[in-house]
## 1
Amino acid sequence: MLDALFKPKSVAVIGASAKELNIGNRIIRNLVEFGYTGAIYPINPKVDEVRGVKAYKSILDVPTEVDVVHLPVHAAAVPQIIEECGRKGVKFVILNGGGFSEIGPVGAVIEEECIAKAKKYGIRIFGPNCQGIINTALESRAYCNFTFTRPDPGVVSLVALSGGVAELLHQTLFQMGIGTRMYASNGNACDVSIPDILRYYGKDEGTHAVVLYVEGLRDPQTFLKAAQEVVPKKPILAMKAGRTEAGAHAAASHTGGLAKKDITTDLIFEKAGILSFHDEEELCQAAGIFTTQPIPKGNRVGVITNTGGPAVIATDVLVSGGLTIPPLSEKSTAILKEKLFKEVIVRNPLDILATANADHFRSGLDAMMDDDGIDSIFISMVTPFFVDNDSIARQIVEVNNQKRKPIVCTLMTDKIGCAETVLIMKDGGVPCYDFPSSAARALTALSKYGEISRRETGSVKRFDDVDRGKAEAIVKKAQGAGRKMLDAAETYGILAAYGIPVADWKVAANADDAEKTASEIGFPVVVKVDSASVVHKSDVGGVALNLQDGTAVRAAVEKMGKAFQAPDLKFLVQKYLSGGKEAVVGAKAEKEVGHLVMCGVGGIYIEILEDVAFKLSPVTDIEAQSMLSSLKAAPLLKGVRGEKGIDEKALTDVIQRVSQLVNDVPVIQEMDLNPIIAFEDSLFVVDARMIL
Amino acid sequence: MLDALFKPKSVAVIGASAKELNIGNRIIRNLVEFGYTGAIYPINPKVDEVRGVKAYKSILDVPTEVDVVHLPVHAAAVPQIIEECGRKGVKFVILNGGGFSEIGPVGAVIEEECIAKAKKYGIRIFGPNCQGIINTALESRAYCNFTFTRPDPGVVSLVALSGGVAELLHQTLFQMGIGTRMYASNGNACDVSIPDILRYYGKDEGTHAVVLYVEGLRDPQTFLKAAQEVVPKKPILAMKAGRTEAGAHAAASHTGGLAKKDITTDLIFEKAGILSFHDEEELCQAAGIFTTQPIPKGNRVGVITNTGGPAVIATDVLVSGGLTIPPLSEKSTAILKEKLFKEVIVRNPLDILATANADHFRSGLDAMMDDDGIDSIFISMVTPFFVDNDSIARQIVEVNNQKRKPIVCTLMTDKIGCAETVLIMKDGGVPCYDFPSSAARALTALSKYGEISRRETGSVKRFDDVDRGKAEAIVKKAQGAGRKMLDAAETYGILAAYGIPVADWKVAANADDAEKTASEIGFPVVVKVDSASVVHKSDVGGVALNLQDGTAVRAAVEKMGKAFQAPDLKFLVQKYLSGGKEAVVGAKAEKEVGHLVMCGVGGIYIEILEDVAFKLSPVTDIEAQSMLSSLKAAPLLKGVRGEKGIDEKALTDVIQRVSQLVNDVPVIQEMDLNPIIAFEDSLFVVDARMIL
C-alpha cells in the first residue's frame, strides 16, 4: 500500500538549505505554503531552521516516526543515506536527484545499490531522478515536490515517469480549472511503479479519473492487470508517446527504453479498456468532462446551438468519433415546434437562433433530456450581447444538475465581458470548452468509456480436442537436437495436434517416394525442399507449384536434389489448392507480455497495405471476430465482385487455436501460417513456419 | 476594390437607437470605442444623438459622402432603404439583419430585390445576415461589427461566412495575443464574396497571413483563381467543415449548400497551395507562427530541450507531419560537446538538461543556426525554479531576432510565477505554445508553406496527336439522336481520337459476323452485348469472357441474341487480355469547377478500399504522377511478390489525355475507363463508358 507515501504523517527533507534555489528548500516551502498537515523535518547539520521550520542534524535525530524522506541530492551520496533511513525505520524515500541509471552503467550500479539497501530495511523507493508526489486531499495537503504548479484540489489523479510531461499535464489541469487529486512523477521508477500507483488511484475514492503518460511499458503484464482492476471503477485516460520511429528513438535516449515502435502498448490499452490519446491537450480536455458528467448510455447525441457554423464543426468531430446525431422523436419535435421561434427548423442539430433566450435553451434541453433517442447533449453557445446570457447559463446549470444525461458545452465568449456567464457555468459543473472540436472530442471520450463499460470482451475458448502433450514432445525433441527452426513434419505435426487444418502432406525421401506419395495425396501437388539449411525456399527455387502428374513430381524432386545438396534433404509433397483466398495467421512472443497473435486476409493486401490485425493472447472469441472485421480487406471475407467469401468461423477458430497453442507451448517464439487458403466452407494451411 | 469597405471615410448606421441592446447602438459604440478615424452617422428620425454622436433623420440628410451604411434591420425594410442609399451615392451597405435567403424562398426574393436595387446604383452589398468587417489599421480603426471580441491589431486577416465561427477564430487570435489585421464575416454573401475578400487581403501589405473558414465553395473557379493569386504572396490557412455526411447535412441546413461530402474543396485547396486544417484551434495556432517567423528552406528540424518527455511528443508530431530530425553536423557536435554539460549526450533532439542555463541554450541555438543540415529550430523549454529563466528567454529572443531560421517554442511554465519570462518571449516575437504538439504542428504548417512555395506544379501537356473534331462530331451525333449514354463504337471512337489505347475491337451484327471478326482480331476474345437498353452488361449475362475459338463465339452470340431482344442489338467483339494488372481512369463534371479526373489501380483494391486519387482538370504531368504515387496500392505499380510492374508512363499519359478530352469536350459529364489492363510495357482499355 502506498498510504504512507501519499498520506504521510511526516516528511523529512535531507539537504534542505536556506538557499532559495535549493531543491530541498523549495520542497519545504511547497509543503508549508500548501498547508501540509503532517510534520516537516528539514535535515541539515549546518542550520537550525529552514523557512522557519526546525532543522535536525541527522534523520536519526528526528523525534517521531518518518513516513517519507526526500533526497534531493546527487546519486553518489544516496546509498549511505538510505542506510541511515533504514535504521530510522523510514517507509518511503523520494530520490529527487539525478545520476542514476538514466546516465548509464555507472549510475545504474548506484541505483542497484540503493535498491538493495532499501530492501534490506523494507524501505520503498520513489524515483530516482524524479519530481515526487502530491496529494491535495484536505487531510493531507502533501506537496512533496519541487515544481512550479501550485496544486489545486480536484478529482483527476495523474501519473507519468517524465517530470516534464507530468508538470505539463498538471499545469494544464490547473489552467483548465480542473485541478488534481493526486500526482505522481516517479522518474526512473526503480521500485514504486506505474502499476502500483494505478492500483492506488483505483482504490482512492477521491479520484474519479486517472490521467497517464507513458513512453513504453516496463512490465506490461503487471500493468495490464492493474489497469484491468481500475478501469471498471474509473476511466484511465492515457497517452503513449514515441509512436514514430524517431519519437521512439528520442524516448529511448532519455529512458533507456526500446528504440522501436511498439504496438504492444496499444494492444494493452485496448485490452484493458484504457482511453488512448495522441495529443496531450486533448487528453487533459477529455479528463475534464469526467469530473462532472455521468457516463452516457449510448452514442446518440442531441446538438443544441445558437449559431450554425460551430455545430457543423462539432458534428464532423462527433460523427468521426463514432457518435451519431439521430433525428429527434416526434414528441420532441412537436414540443419544440411549439416552444421555439417560428423560424427555427426543428431537427438535430437544433439551431435555436442567436436571438434564443433562456426559455428557448431550456425547452431544447428538456426535450432532449426526455427524448429516449438521445443519450447525451452537446451545447454550442455563443454569447450575443442582445440576449441574457447569464439566464441561459442558469438554465443550462439547472438541467445539468439533474444529472440525467451528460452535457458538454462549447462556450464561445468574451471571457472578460461575459465573466459572470462563464462563472455560472463553471460553478454549475457544466464542462465548457473554447472550441467546438475540443468539446466534441471530450464527449466522444466520455461516450467511449460508456462503450467500454458495456462492452463484451468475450471468452477464451478452450479447445478440448488438442493434444498438448504431442506438441510439447515435438518441441522438446527439436530443443534436444539444438534446433530453433522446426522442420515441416514437426510444424505440421504441431498444427495437427492443435486441430489446425493443413493441406494433405507427406515427407518423401526421394523421387520414387515423392511420386508415390503424390498419387496417394492426389494431383495437383506442390513439392518443397525440406531442410534446416534452406530458409527462404521459394526465393531459391525450392518450391514447385501445381504439379499435375507423377512425371512432373519426379522432375521437380530431381532438380531440387541437384540444387540443394544438404545431408538432411527431404521433400515435402503437399496437395496443391487453388481458387481460394489467401489469409495469414501468426504469433510472436513479446518480451514480458506473452504473445501477439496476428491475422490478415487477401494475399497481396497483407504485404502492401500492412493490412493485419493484432491481439494479445489469449485471444477471446469476440476478439478473434473483431480482428477480422477490423481489416481493411474485411469485405473480401464476405465476397465481392461476384467472388465467394470465406469461412470466417474457420478462420477465427484458427486464430483462437493458435492463441491456445502459444499459451500452452510458450517456447514458440514465432509462428506463421502463411498462406492459409480459405474457401467458402473450409480452409487449409499450405505453408507454415515455427521458431522456438 | 474594397477600399471603401475596409477603409471607409464615413459610416452610417440606419436604425441606431439609444437602447443598449440595439445592434445599431452597439455598432456605434464599437466604432467610437475602437477609435474609428472617420465620420459616424447614426440615422434615426426619433433621436438627436446616439452615444453622443449627432444623429440624422435620413441617410439623405448626411452632410458628407457615405462609404458604408450598416443596415441592422429585418429584411422586409431593406430594399427601400437601399434605394435611398443609392440616391445618396453610398458605396457599400452592410446588411446585418436576417430574413433573407437563409430562411427560404420568401427571403430569397427580398435578397434578389436588394441585389437589383444595389446594382442599379452601383452599390456593393456586404452580407446579408452577417456581422460585418473590421480593419484594425491605425489609419482606419474601422470596427464595423456588433460582436464581442475587441479587435487587437495584428497581421492575420480572417474571413468566414459563418458569424459564429468568424467570432470564434477572432476571439482565439485575440486570446493568443496575435490579434487581427482585418476581419470579414459576410453571411449569405450575395455580392461581396470570399474570393473578393481574399484578393483584397492579398494586396494588403499589413496582412501577412490569411485565415479562412468555409463549409463549401460557391464559385470554385473564381475562388481557385483568387487563392492562386494570393498564395505566392502570403499563406492562406483554411478549414473546411462539413467533412462528414452528417456535418455536410448540418452545413446545408444553415447555408442552403449541398448536403454531401465534397472532395472538390480539398482538391482546390491543394491546387491553390492553401494550407488545410481540420481543427479550428490548430488553424489559429498555426497562423500564429506566420506572424513572426521566416519560412524555412527545408524540412529538417533541430530540437533543443531541457526536459525529455516533451521532446518525444514533439518528435512524434513533427515526423508524422513529414519533417525530419536529422543528426547534427560533426562541427556542431564538436562545438556542443565543448560547451554543454558533460552529461549531455550531443544528438538531435538535443536534451541540454533541466539545469541548463542561458549560455547552454545559446550554444545549442547558435550551433543549430550555423548547421547547414538544419532548417528550423524547435525549442522545448520548461522553467525550473533553480535556473535563470529570464536570461534563457533573452538569449532565445536574441537568436530569434537574427531571423536566420524559424524558431518555435513550447514554453511549459507557470504563467503567473514566470510572467516575466513569458513576456520577454512574447515581446521578442518568439512564437510560444503551451503544448509540444501545438508548437510542432505550427512548425509543420510553416514548413509546409515553404514546400508549397518551392513546389513544382508541372505543366499541362497538350497532346497534338488528338482529333478533337472527330470526338466532337461523335458527341454531336449522339446529342442529335437524344442519347446521353454513348454506345461502344462511339466511346471507343472518342478514345481512339484521343490516342487512348483500346484492346482491338469491332462491332458485329450477328453470329456469322462475330465469328469472322473474332478470327480477324485473334483469339481469345470477349463478346459483349451492345445496346442502349442494356446498362449493367456483366450483371445480366451480357459479357462472355475468354472465348477461345469461333464455335465459342458463335454460341455466346446466339445465347445473347435470345436473352436480349433489343431492336438495336449488336455485339462487341474484343481482344481478351489476361495477366496484366487492372487500373481505372475516369472523369466527372463537377458543377462550376470543371472536371475531376480519377485514377485507381489494382482491381479489387479500388472498390474495397476506395483507393483512388482525384485531381482537378487540367491535370499536369506532375499531378498525374502524384496521383499514382498517392495510391495505397502504389507499390503494385512497381511490381511486388515477383509480379511485374506496369507501364506508369502509359498510365499517366492516359490520365492526361482524359484530362485534355474533358477539357476539349466538356459536355462529357462522366467517363470511366474500367478496367484498363496494364502490362509492363503497354496498357489497353478493355471496357469504357461515357455519359453526356
## 2
Amino acid sequence: MNLQQLMRTLHTTNKSKIVLLVSDGLGGLPIEPGGGTELETASTPNLDKLAAENVCGLSIPLLPGITPGSGPGHLGLFGYDPLEVTIGRGVLEALGIDLELGPTDVAARGNFCTVNEQGELTDRRAGRIPTEVCARLVGMLRAIRIPGVDLVIEPVREYRFAAVFRGQELYGEVEDTDPQVTGVPALEPKARDAASEKTAQVAAEFIRQARRILNNEKPANMLMLRGFARRPPIPSMKELYGLNAAAIAVYPMYRGLARLVGMTVLPQAKNLAEEIEALRQNWDSFDFFFFHFKYTDSTGEDGNFPEKVKRIEELDRHIPQILELKPDVLIVTGDHSTPCLLKSHSWHPVPVLLAARTCRPDRVTSFGERECLYGGLGQVEAKYLLPLALGHAGRLQKFGA
Amino acid sequence: MNLQQLMRTLHTTNKSKIVLLVSDGLGGLPIEPGGGTELETASTPNLDKLAAENVCGLSIPLLPGITPGSGPGHLGLFGYDPLEVTIGRGVLEALGIDLELGPTDVAARGNFCTVNEQGELTDRRAGRIPTEVCARLVGMLRAIRIPGVDLVIEPVREYRFAAVFRGQELYGEVEDTDPQVTGVPALEPKARDAASEKTAQVAAEFIRQARRILNNEKPANMLMLRGFARRPPIPSMKELYGLNAAAIAVYPMYRGLARLVGMTVLPQAKNLAEEIEALRQNWDSFDFFFFHFKYTDSTGEDGNFPEKVKRIEELDRHIPQILELKPDVLIVTGDHSTPCLLKSHSWHPVPVLLAARTCRPDRVTSFGERECLYGGLGQVEAKYLLPLALGHAGRLQKFGA
C-alpha cells in the first residue's frame, strides 16, 4: 500500500482548518563563511515563538542532492510523489499565465523566431522582441482556424507565448519543432505515438497558417512549438484527502499548480496583506489553505541577501494575523531552498515548522536551518508533510486494527 | 523515476573535481563501556577542522541492521542501489586478484579439497594447503584444454583459486559443486537455466580433467567450484553521472569493484604516500577520484583498537595533501563500520563529512560518531552521497520547471 492509497483509505473529515504557508525558496546558505543563512539572519520573533512551542524539522524536496523546479517542489508539499508526476513544459507555461486547462487539452509553449528566405532559422528567439510586440502577433494568430479544434493563444513574455489545443482525441506525445540550432529549418511536429497523430497534424496546420500570417513581420516571421503535453492525470486533494482546498497566491504559476490538484483558486491577491484578507474572508468555506509567498524565492534568485532577509521579516510580521484565525494545523516551509549564494533553486533541505495542539515538543528554540536540524520532525521528504498535517488535524483514521 | 534515471537525465558537466575518500570500515564502537570509538579516540586535527567548517552526518550502508560486504558497501558509495545489484562470489574472487572480466566471461571460485578412494569428500579445504602449493597445483591445471573456451586460472590464497571461463554463450546460472558437508562426493555442476547448460558442461569437463591431473596429489587431490557468475550488467559512472572516474587503491578487490562501474583504475599504489602521489599526477585527467584506504578495516577485523586508532591518525596526517589540490567536493567516509569490538564488518552507520563551498553549516565541531549524529546530512543512505556530491559540484540540473 503506497502513500496515496493510504490517504485515500484513511482520510476522514472534521471541522479542522489546515494552513500550508509556502515561503518559496525559503531555505538558504550563509553568504560568507561563518555567517548565518538568510532565515537565521532575519529577525523573526513570531516564527521563533511558533518554533519553540511546536515541532520543527527539515523538508527534503525530492531526494538528497536533487534540486526541484517549482512544479515538483509544490507537488511534494501537496503530498504527491514529485518523481512520479511529470508536468509538461507546455502545461507549466499555460498555468503560468492563469490559463484553465481541461484534462484533455494539449498545451504547448510557443516561441517566435526568425527565418531567412530559405526558411532556415537565423534567430530562435526573434531578437527577444518586446512583450507588446508578442501580444500584437498573438492577436494576429487568433485568426487561425482549424476545424474541430478550439485554439487558445496568449502572450507570455518577450518571444514566448502559450498555445492550448482543445478538441476531440488530442494527446501530448508530439516532438518539439525547435531544432535547438540555427541554420536549419524548424522541424515538423512529429507524433511519438499513434494516439498523438491528430495533435501533430493540428500543430502542423497551425504552423502553416501562422507562417502565412507572420510572413511580412520583422524579426518575428515564424514560430516554433515545444513541450506539448496534457495536464498530468492526478487525483484531486478532495479525492485523496477529503479536503476542500483553496489556493491563495500572487503569481499565476502557483495558482495553476494548485488547480492541477483540484484546489479552488481564490481571486488574485496583489500582496501579502491582500492574501491575508483572502484567507480571512474564505476561512469558513474551506478546510485547507495553500498560502504562497513568492518573494523569498525571487530575492534569492537575485542573490540579494539583505532583501531576502527583509522579505522573511515581512512574512514574520504577518504571522499573528494568520494565528488569529486559529488554524488547527499551520505548516510553514518552502518548496525548495533558493540560497542567495547560488542565485538559484538548490537541493538543500528546507526548514519546516508544524504548529498544532498535538505537537510533541522538541528542543528547537528558533526557526532557522541549524536549529531545525534538532527538530522533532527530523529530515523528512516533503511528500510526508501533508499526511502529518492530516494526522495533527485528526483527519486520518488508524491503519489496521 | 528512480535515482538512476534521475542521474542519467539531470547530470551535466563542468570542470569540478570530486574526491571520494573511503576509509574502509571507518565506523567503530567503544572497546569498553564509557570509552570512545576508534575515530573518537584518534587525534584527527585535519578531519576535525573539515568537519567543523563543512557538513557531517552518518551514512547507512544498506538498511538499518544490515551489514554489507565490501561489494555492496562500495556500490552504495558509488551511487548504485546495493540491494538491486548482485555481485557473484566468483566475480568478487576474480576481482580480488586483479583479473580482468569481460561482460560475457563466467567466473567461479575454486577450492582444492581431499576425497577418499570412493570419491567422498574428507576435507573440503584440503588441509588448508599453503599458498605456494596452491600456485603449483594451479600451474598444473593450466594444462586443461576445453574446445572453444579460454581458461584463466589463478591462485588466490591457501586452498582457494579463481577460474574464469571465456567463450561463446556462457552464462552463470550453475549450481555450486560443493555439497557443504564431507562423507559424500562433490556434486556435478548443474545448470539452473537452459542458457547456462553449456557452462555446466564446460565446468564438468574442467573438473573431469582436473581430477585426472590431481589424482596423485596429497592432500589436494580434487577441486570444487562455487559462485559461478557473470559480472553484473550495470551502467558505468560515465553513463549515469557523466563522470570520468579514476580509482586509487592498494588492494585489488577495490580496484576490481571500481572497474565494475567503469572507472579507470590507476596503477597499484603500495601505500598512502603513493596513493596521494597518484592522485596528484592524475588530477587534471579525471573529474572524480575514488581513493581507498584499507587499514581501518583490516585493523578492525584484527580487533586491534590501538592500531586502528593509529591508522586513522595516519590518514588524518595525509588530508592536507589532498586539500592542497583544492577539490571542489571532498567526501570522507567508509563503506561500513568495522568495530574492533566485533572484529568484523557491522551495520552501524558510518561517519561522513562532505566539504564544499555550498555546504550549509551545522554544529559539528569534530569528526566522530557521536558528533556526526548532529550533522546536517542527517543519517543518509550511502547511495545518496554521490548525488549529493554531484549537487555540490554543480553537476546536476534541476528536476522539472
